[in-house]
Specification:
Length: about 300
């Protein structure tokens, strides 16, 4: 029996909890810093809406950062990118000498925060093409199914096979990437194209590919991103990436991006870890990325115009 903890009971944390709780070999706990949300989940459980059907799940939840937690075998991080360091610091007792930390977070550079608490060879990085929208505490809409891809910076990492096996036994569509940097960049190019535009326009994902002005902006975002990626040593085919963005928009057309959900709930976004990370890297290489730089400024302006807690 493996002890596993999901850190962050947001839309994606709840979705992956609904999968992991199906595995009889996993003793799963869901952690969140909001006591009211934890109480609600413990009272009512998780409720997934999928294809207009309500599907309940029972997963025990606890308040993160409160009291002592024993080290676990697997720690999955689903907090926002900018919350990674604080969340791990508050829950560092979960990390023991054998703990494998899994990040399926958006953006680039999350592992640089995680490595402050666990060696790089015990970090598994992944991306998810699922779309989940939080409707309430533990209540979420699974708007689109998709593949989960994982990898590691350490070559031939046995921890990747462990996580692949665990996810596979839960019914997740799982595959392994041999180049984690390509994996991170590919997902980044998708997120930087969809997330800020849906947030600023306040639209669901499907609008981006169906609206010509929006899609023209996507092309500019991708072109700048591909230039920076190439300078970073990663070369992609432009049409392949645009086709991927288009496909994700279609598959998740009824769903809301995480950044749009942040705007709805008046929370700080992950823009600095998505388009902002590309702007920073572009500056390092002396590359101009005016469209992405403007998107970062616009998103921060919207954040400043909103009130509310993260």
């Amino acid at each position: 029996m493996l002890n596993a903890v999901i850190l962050g009971a947001g839309a994606m944390g709840c979705l992956y909890a609904s999968y992991l709780c199906k595995n009889p070999n996993i003793n799963l706990t869901l952690l969140d810093h909001r006591a009211a949300k934890v109480d609600e989940i413990n009272k009512k459980g998780l409720l997934m809406i999928e294809n207009d059907e309500e599907i309940p799940f029972s997963v025990p939840a606890k308040v993160s950062g409160h009291g002592h937690h024993e080290p676990v075998d697997i720690l999955l991080i689903f907090v926002k990118a900018h919350q990674t360091y604080a969340a791990l610091k508050a829950n560092r007792s979960l990390i023991g000498p054998k703990t494998v930390v899994v990040s399926l977070q958006n953006g680039m550079g999350n592992y640089l925060e995680i490595v402050k608490f666990v060696p790089l060879d015990r970090i598994v990085i992944g991306t998810s093409n699922h779309n989940s929208t939080l409707l309430g505490s533990g209540h979420f809409l699974h708007a689109a199914d998709g593949k989960t891809i994982i990898g590691a910076f350490a070559k031939d990492s046995p921890h990747v096979e462990l996580i692949r096996s665990v996810f596979d036994e839960c019914g997740l569509d799982i595959s392994v990437s041999n180049d984690v940097r390509v994996l991170i960049w590919r997902k980044l190019l998708v997120n930087m194209s969809i997330n800020p535009l849906t947030m600023l326009l306040e639209v669901k994902n499907g609008f981006i590919q169906s609206n010509r002005p929006s899609w023209d902006i996507v092309r500019q975002i991708v072109d700048e991103g591909l230039t920076v990626a190439k300078a970073d040593g990663i070369d992609f085919d432009r049409e392949e990436i645009l086709e991927l963005v288009h496909k994700i928009c279609v598959l998740t057309r009824t769903g809301c991006s995480s950044m749009f959900q942040d705007r709805i709930h008046k929370r700080r976004t992950e823009i600095d870890f998505i388009n902002g990370s590309v702007v920073s890297l572009a500056r390092k290489h002396g590359i101009q990325v005016p469209v992405n730089a403007l998107l970062v400024q616009l998103v921060h302006a919207v954040e400043d115009s909103c009130s509310g807690e993260e």
